[in-house]
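Protein modeling request. Please complete all fields; requests missing the sequence field cannot be processed.
Requester role: graduate student
Desired output: 3D structure, token encoding
Chains: 1
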Amino acid sequence: MNKIFIFFLLIILKLNYSYAQGDILWEFETKGRIYSSPIIEGDIVFVGSGDHSFYAINKNTGHKVWEFKAGGEIHSSPFILNNFVYFGSADGNLYAVHKADGKLIWKFESEGEKKYDLWDYYLSSPKGDEETIYWGCGDGNLYAIEGSNGQLKWKFQTKGIIHASPVIYKNNVFIGSFDGNFYCIQKENGSLVWKFKTVGASYFPKGEIQKAALVKDDVVYFGSRDYNIYALDTRTGIGKWNMREVNGWIIATPTIYKDNIYFGTSDAHLFYSMNKVSGSINWTIPVNMRVYGSAITHNNIIYFGTFDGKVIGVDYLTGQRKWEFQTEKSKLNYSSIYNEKGEFKEGFEIYGNDFEASEVLIHSLGSILSSPVIDNEIIFFGSSDGNLYAVKLK
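Delivered output (394 residues):
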């Protein structure tokens, strides 16, 4: 084998394998889709599933520690406070279970859950502050609930479904609604401090807010179905900047890292890096499908999941791809949607006459709507294929 041939062979290999491929440490199978994000405490990973069950899983082995059965799908990410784990369910209840054994402590009954449309995938995830749990619901209410016994402290009503998760910052709770308003609410008594109305768009005049905001350094950042990402002053609700992505919703909660914010888009199929102060765009990179989940940062790499069944890791400065994991369902079914160039194959339409069938086909790729978490060089995330994955980063 001559030296010239070896030289060109090495170049080809470098071009084709220029980023690391993730190796599965273990996968835990549930009987429903996983849209929510896992959390880790100690040696346990906690996650909910569309099979109505909430799971505690050993993070080292992938073996089930305990399982709790709710009355509906659990697409709410959990929250841990003291010895309790809190999560919402499509049955309209907020649950508190003991984190050691999954035994029910209490459940809080809302006025009833609702689903907005086919792309309303998530439920509000509870957040806590001292002894109070704050939780949004499809009945349009933000609830403040006593963490120890599940008793209602106050509720604040909006005019739309709330599936965004609340964010607690200083003395206030920040949350968006499908009514197109973003609210700042006094956390002690539930009184309105201010609200901000999204601009709206031709086909989405309400400018629905679907997921949680990011709050940092007195600025709140959130996306909307009116194609905008907004940055507001947390004290006044007055806008600092906004950016309109003309080709799609911005659902994902932004992630902040080294003075930049990072987020994916819906039908624009782009992932963004923007300066958090000015709103100027640093770079965008194309992806093959929507990004609804939040990104996570680790060692200067930004990791995020996509609807085509991949978790991608990119350099925070350049957007250059450094790492990738693809589910087996994605590998198996990719050619049902994409051609050899990674483009939609002829005849496939996301929003054609049978858009529901197209959505089912997309989820056959093991779509990753779950926001990943990283622990000890292992990345954990859920998938539409029903699995919770633990994948090595190195």
